[in-house]
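wait is this the right file?? whatever heres the structure
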């Protein structure tokens, strides 16, 4: 029996490190997924204006190599668009389900739903909405399908790299009046993402 473990990361580098450690733990690439917001242009010079009327990314796709993914899941990163999120870079089963298109090339069709994909993976509706909103606000989502016996170690990996669970982040979102992910809402701008990240950034210890 297996289960899906998902965490939100405010920093892409933390998510990348978590994916690497999950691979080292023995989680197959086919059971891993990563979805990272690219509205801020961190993963290539793309923003919301690059998505055309059909929801496709109209310029070149970022590649895993360009993002430091030297192998494994991260080598398959591609640029696509999902409703309500704008441009993202993604790889893996969850991204494929959410986008309704193959990952790894230019212009993944903007069909499907990240909320729906997360619910199909076993997340509650509340958690699926929070995680989707987290990506919309500039975060990176990592999901792993693991055997029940491996679940504690997988959770420890995600937590060790500062993964945030839906309950914690959802409570923070609701304090500001948020209720659920809206795929019709405009994608966050670079400036809005920068403000959002500063809200949750841990202070530097000197």
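ok assuming it is, sequence goes like this
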């Amino acid at each position: 029996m297996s289960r899906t473990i998902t965490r939100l990361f405010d920093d892409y580098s933390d998510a990348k490190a978590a994916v690497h450690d999950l691979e080292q733990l023995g989680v197959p690439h086919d059971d891993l997924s990563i979805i990272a917001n690219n509205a801020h242009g961190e993963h290539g010079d793309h923003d919301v204006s690059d998505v055309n009327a059909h929801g496709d990314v109209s310029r070149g796709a970022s590649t895993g190599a360009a993002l430091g993914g030297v192998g494994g899941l991260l080598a398959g990163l591609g640029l696509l668009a999902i409703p309500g999120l704008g441009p993202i870079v993604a790889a893996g089963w969850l991204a494929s389900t959410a986008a309704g298109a193959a990952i790894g090339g230019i212009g993944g069709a903007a069909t499907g739903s990240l909320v729906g994909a997360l619910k199909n993976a076993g997340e509650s509706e509340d958690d699926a909405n929070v995680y989707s909103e987290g990506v919309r606000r500039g975060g990176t989502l990592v999901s792993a399908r693991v055997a029940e016996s491996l679940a504690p170690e997988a959770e420890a990996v995600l937590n060790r790299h500062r993964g945030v669970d839906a309950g914690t982040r959802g409570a923070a979102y609701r304090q500001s009046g948020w209720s659920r992910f809206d795929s019709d809402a405009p994608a966050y701008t670079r400036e809005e993402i920068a403000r959002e990240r500063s809200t949750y950034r841990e202070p530097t210890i000197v």
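The CA atoms of residues 115 and 128 lie 5 Å apart. so i think its the right one actually
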